[in-house]
Design a protein that fits this description.
Distance between the termini: 57 Å
CATH superfamily of the largest domain: ANL, N-terminal domain
CATH class of the largest domain: Alpha Beta
Oligomer: single chain
Strand content: 25-35%
Number of domains: 2
Radius of gyration: 20 Å
Helix content: 10-25%
CATH architecture of the largest domain: 3-Layer(aba) Sandwich
Length: 330
């Protein structure tokens, strides 16, 4: 029989916070406070009830369908991704080990018997390059917090884990929809008891928890699931055509890969006297590549009017601690 136990790496510096949450959980507290990621501004404090946390952890457990878990936590425990791993370990009655969050969390681990890990897309990509053998030992890898571009070309490099793209938010205590990338699922499927609709932006309804949320995300419904096109506040309205930056970014990343260029970037918008707004491309670093072949290769792959009108270079692209780009308009 499994029992909850927590372990910590030597450099993990949130031990007191974890111990306080464990104490509160064991004494039966009904409310827990954590913070949003701060994608669109200052992180907000959110109160989550014990009922919501239990629902989320049990829903994930049913989806993963593993008889035994051993969790590796390398996300901030004061944000949803790391916090929910602690809650899952408490509810699943399993072992969990906490590591200081980093871009390459598996870099210092030679051997391990962890079964489950949650990663941001940036952590997943870095681990795939630097620590593929360690990454391949997991049974389940949950990816969330930001979009994962060109997922099929990434997940095909691993043959053992089940790799899940997740969608959710702090208010729902982590994900409310999951997509099995290892099984080539093309859409996110809502967890049982979750109803998704769209009124300009996605609405989430969980009747059992009395949760009704209007998100800032725009979805595209397909089959029995949906895909996320992007946030409504990031949509570029160019001459009446609504352009979603994420759709352009997927194509840009594939062109960069084809040209063997490793670039951090994002698509934003700039005011235009004729079209209102136009898409632009922001690239981290210096203009150290020939941009003409890049634009020539990119433009035919995009719908009309979707190609970035300008390219700007910036010393550093700002991101939240979950890896989401903090987009700046120009």
């Amino acid at each position: 029989m499994s029992f909850f136990s927590a372990y910590y790496s030597n450099d993990f510096d949130d031990k007191l916070f974890v111990k306080e949450i464990i104490k509160k959980w064991n004494q039966g507290d009904n409310e827990f406070k954590i913070y949003t990621s701060g994608t669109t501004g200052k992180p907000k404090e959110i109160t989550l009830t014990r009922k919501v946390l239990k629902w989320s952890a049990i829903s994930t457990q049913n989806k993963l369908n593993l008889p035994r878990h051993k969790i590796m936590c390398c996300l901030s425990v004061q944000r949803t991704g790391g916090f929910m791993q602690l809650i899952r370990a408490l509810i699943w009655q399993c072992e969990i080990q906490f590591f200081k969050p980093s871009n390459n969390p598996l870099g210092t681990i030679q051997q391990h018997d962890f079964t489950t890990i949650s990663l941001t897309p940036a952590q997943f990509k870095s681990s795939l390059i630097k620590s593929p053998k360690q990454l391949n030992k997991f049974k389940h890898i949950l990816i969330g917090g930001a979009p994962l571009n060109n997922s099929s070309s990434l997940t095909s490099k691993l043959d053992h884990p089940q790799i899940w793209l997740t969608y959710g938010m702090t208010e729902t205590a982590s994900h409310i929809a999951m997509q099995n990338l290892s099984n080539n699922e093309a859409v996110l499927y809502p967890l049982p008891g979750v109803k998704i609709s769209q009124n300009e932006t996605l609405q989430i309804h969980i009747p059992e928890l009395n949760i009704q949320l209007q998100t800032n995300d725009i979805g595209d419904f397909r089959e029995d699931g949906f895909v996320i096109l992007g946030r409504s506040d990031n949509v570029i309205n160019s001459g009446g055509i609504k352009i979603h930056p994420h759709q352009i970014e997927v194509v840009i990343e594939s062109v960069f890969q084809m040209m063997n260029l490793k670039k951090q970037f994002y698509v934003s918008k700039e005011n235009h006297p004729e079209y209102g707004e136009v898409p632009i491309l922001i690239i981290e670093g210096k203009p150290d590549f020939n941009q003409k072949p890049f634009i020539k290769a990119l433009t035919p792959l995009l719908p009309k009017y979707h190609a970035p009108k300008k390219i700007y270079f910036t010393p550093k692209i700002l991101k939240t601690d979950t890896g989401k780009v903090i987009r700046e308009a120009y």
